[in-house]
Structures are given as C-alpha cells and as structure tokens.
Amino acid sequence: MRKLFSFFLFINIFLLNSCDDGDIVTVELDFDTSFEACEGANDLILYKTKDDPSESLSLLLNNVSLEDIFEVDDTGVFENTYTISSTNPFNYRTYSNTSLPSDLFCNTIPNSEISITQDTEVTSGTAVLTTILTEDDADGISAELENQDPNGDGDYSDAQDTDGDGIPDYIDADDDGDNVLTKNEDPDPNDDGDLSDALDTDSDGIPDYLDADDDGDGLDTRDEEIDSQDQNPANDFSTGGGIADYLNGEIANLDAPRATAYREHTIVQTYNITLIIYDVDLDLISLDTYDFGVLDDNDTTDSRVVTPDFP
Ligand SMILES: [Ca+2]
Ligand SMILES: [Ca+2]
Ligand SMILES: [Ca+2]
Ligand SMILES: [Ca+2]
Hints:
Strand content: 25-35%
Order of helices and strands: HEEEEEEEEEE
Bound molecules: calcium ion
Largest sheet: 10 strands, mixed
Distance between the termini: 69 Å
Radius of gyration: 28 Å
C-alpha cells in the first residue's frame, strides 16, 4: 500500500506543480511492458494486470477478432487506429485482491473472488495497433549476413538467393539447395557470428552451406543419395567409415538416381504486436501517449512450410 500511496502522492505533486500552466501530465504507469488478449463473442480485450497493488488496464475493441490483427499486408505490416468510445472503452481498475489471475479478462462468467475497488472508464482518445511480421529460417545466420538487403534501401526484393529457388537466403533453411539444411552444414562452428570459419569440406573457398557440391567430386550433394531417395543426402553411405557420400570426395556414385525434388523448408514467423494509447484521461492521470507494450500470446509465433519447385 505504501507503494501505491507514494505513487499517487507523486502524481499529485506533479499535478500541483503543473496545473498552473495547463500542461498535460505524462506518467508511466507501473505495469510490465507486455499485454495479453482475450476474445469475446464479438470483441477483443487487450489488457494487462499487476499485483501489489492489484490494478488492470484494458481496452475493449468491438467487432474486432484476434485474427484481424494478424492480417498483415504484403510488406508484413498491419496498422490500424481505433477510436476509444463507449463501445471501445479503455478502463483502469483497482482491486482489493492481493493478486490477480492472469486470465482475468478471459472468463465469460465473472469471477466472484475478484473485487473491484475503483473502475475508471475512458470513452475518448485513440488507440493504434501495429503488427509487424518477421520471418526467419532459424539456420543460425543473421538476416544481415545472408544479404537480406544488399544495397541497404529497405527493399528486400533484391535479397540474395543462392540456389535460385525463389526463397531468399535469409528465410531459406537450405541456402544452396543441396537438400542438407544450412544449420547442418556448420556455417558458424563456434557460434560467434563470424562465418569465416564456416566448414568448407573441399577447400574450394565456398563454404559447405553455399556449396552445392560439398566434397568437390563433381556430383552434386543432392544427387549423392545411393541408399534412400528421401531428399536427405546425410543418410546415404557407400562405405562403412561413417562419412556420408556427399562429404566423401572418393565416392561419386554416378549410378545413384538424380534428385527430383527439394526438401520441405520451414519458415519461422514472429508477429510483433504493439499498442499505443493516445489522449486518455484517467482522472488522476492524463496520458497523452501511453506505450501499452507488446502482445504476449502463443499465436505470435508460427511457421509456414514451403517446398520450392524443383528445376
Ligand atoms: Ca534460396
Ligand atoms: Ca538461410
Ligand atoms: Ca552444401
Ligand atoms: Ca561424394
């Protein structure tokens, strides 16, 4: 309680000091930087809670679904401005409970254990939701080192595509199209972000993860599948030495069937969803800009699977 008292005392002093000249007072509320979401029948609640003392901030968006805010455009961005109103209210609540359940706003039946001591509802102001989708191949190499944007103009349409399969290297889990994943071709053996020590089996100056013929025997890695034609040259051995044919320069089995397909590529997707609240008056606190934070939700990580057309 002492914390709450000193917090409000601070606000009051701030107000007293500033009311003469009519300044808008901006105060950081003491919440975490993340928020959560719950869907109702026809609305979406974006909220955050804290304990000691127990408080919540929430924004209800009428006629909005969780799916709506993941609908990014071709550039991977969704942005929308919502007017705070009686149908899209913003609420600041305090509770007598010492702690609050994390799903406070997710129950259709009100929890009888929860006791609200103050409910300030704001019906004016604006809220801006921004969603940015980032895709990655999880191959252990940064997008920058995979030449996502060679000329630095923010347009990735000229991104490097080593194997020409239509998937640029920064989201291509198999950069050289040899059906051995980049992460399994030792691009950065000591994980220090410097690729100068990348594995180069045939010492031809092209690291294995960008080399379609890793052992330099003249037969492409993806065609060295003598045992099983399963788009995985790593499980094909002509000799018992434990070295797969694609890394064995002594073995180039021209009788092996040629590859006819690429393996599946998994592209990891991360949605960064942020909310900024503008011009809300919570009685004690007026906020001209309040950074509500980043959505913490399982749906913000996803993946898609692509199998490029084989040439
Ligand atoms: Ca590619
Ligand atoms: Ca890659
Ligand atoms: Ca390779
Ligand atoms: Ca070989």
